[in-house]
C-alpha cells in the first residue's frame, strides 16, 4: 500500500515535543547506572567478602529479567503498596498523583546498573596489573590509584560500550507506554488513533530514534578521539 508522507510529517511533528521525555528516560538512568555500576564493579573486582558474591548473584538474576517484565512488576508493586504506605504514614499523596515517568526511570536505572557494572568490571580487568604495582610503589593509596591512574585509563576502554548502553536506553524508553508514559513512540501514535496511519507513525518515530542514536554515536566518537589524543599527549609528557 502507498505510504502517506503527509501523515509521516504530522506524526513527526506530534512526536518531537516528547523528545525531552525520551532523553530523560535515557540520560538519568545512565547517570544513576554509572554511579551504582561502578560501585558494584569495584566491589566485585576487589572481591569484597560476602558482598561480591551477593552482587554477582544479583547481576546474574538481573540479566535474565526482560525490561517489559520489570516495568510491569514495578508498576503493580508501586500501585499496590504506595497507597498503603502513604496511608500508614498519614501522607496526603497517592499513587494517582505520582508521575509514572519515575517508574520508568527506576526500572531503566536498574537495567543500566546491571549492564554498566559489567562494562566497568571488564574495563578494570583490562588494566595491566603492573599499573597497580607501579602506583603502590610510589606510595599511592588504593583510592588514589583508582582516581589518578586506573580511572583515566578506564574511560577510553568503557566509553564505546557506555555509548552503546545509552542507545539501548533510548530504544528501551519506548516501552514506558506500558506504565502510561507518553514518549516519542506514543507521541507519534497520537495522530494514528484518528487517521489509522499506524505505519506512517512508526516510520516517524523510527526516524527520531535513528537521529538520536546517530547523534549520540557521533558525539561519543568525537569525545573519544579528543580524550585519547589528550591522554596520549599527557602520557608522553
From TrEMBL:
InterPro entries: ArtM/GltK/GlnP/TcyL/YhdX-like, MetI-like, MetI-like_sf. It comes from Aerococcus urinaeequi. Pfam families: BPD_transp_1. Keywords: Amino-acid transport, Membrane, Transmembrane, Transmembrane helix, Transport. The chain crosses the membrane at residues 21-42, 54-78, 102-120, 157-182. This is ABC transporter permease subunit. It is a multi-pass membrane protein. PROSITE patterns: ABC_TM1. Gene3D superfamilies: MetI-like (1.10.3720.10). It is found in: Cell membrane; Membrane. Residues 19-220 form the ABC transmembrane type-1 domain. Belongs to the binding-protein-dependent transport system permease family.
Amino acid at each position: 500500500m502507498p505510504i502517506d508522507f503527509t501523515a509521516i510529517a504530522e506524526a513527526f511533528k506530534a512526536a518531537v515535543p516528547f523528545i525531552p521525555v525520551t532523553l530523560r528516560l535515557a540520560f538519568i538512568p545512565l547517570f544513576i547506572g554509572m554511579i551504582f555500576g561502578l560501585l558494584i564493579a569495584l566491589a566485585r573486582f576487589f572481591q569484597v567478602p560476602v558482598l561480591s558474591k551477593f552482587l554477582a548473584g544479583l547481576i546474574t538474576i538481573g540479566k535474565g529479567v526482560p525490561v517489559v517484565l520489570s516495568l510491569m512488576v514495578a508498576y503493580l508493586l508501586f500501585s499496590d503498596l504506595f497507597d498503603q504506605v502513604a496511608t500508614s504514614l498519614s501522607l496526603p499523596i497517592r499513587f494517582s498523583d505520582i508521575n509514572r515517568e519515575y517508574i520508568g526511570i527506576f526500572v531503566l536505572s536498574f537495567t543500566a546498573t546491571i549492564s554498566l557494572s559489567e562494562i566497568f568490571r571488564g574495563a578494570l580487568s583490562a588494566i595491566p596489573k603492573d599499573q597497580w604495582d607501579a602506583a603502590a610503589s610510589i606510595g599511592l593509596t588504593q583510592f588514589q590509584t583508582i582516581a589518578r591512574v586506573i580511572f583515566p585509563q578506564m574511560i577510553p576502554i568503557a566509553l564505546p560500550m557506555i555509548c552503546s548502553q545509552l542507545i539501548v536506553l533510548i530504544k528501551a524508553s519506548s516501552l514506558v507506554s506500558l506504565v502510561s508514559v507518553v514518549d516519542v513512540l506514543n507521541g507519534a501514535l497520537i495522530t494514528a488513533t484518528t487517521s489509522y496511519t499506524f505505519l506512517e507513525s512508526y516510520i516517524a518515530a523510527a526516524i527520531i530514534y535513528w537521529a538520536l542514536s546517530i547523534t549520540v554515536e557521533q558525539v561519543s566518537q568525537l569525545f573519544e578521539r579528543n580524550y585519547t589524543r589528550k591522554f596520549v599527549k599527557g602520557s608522553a609528557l
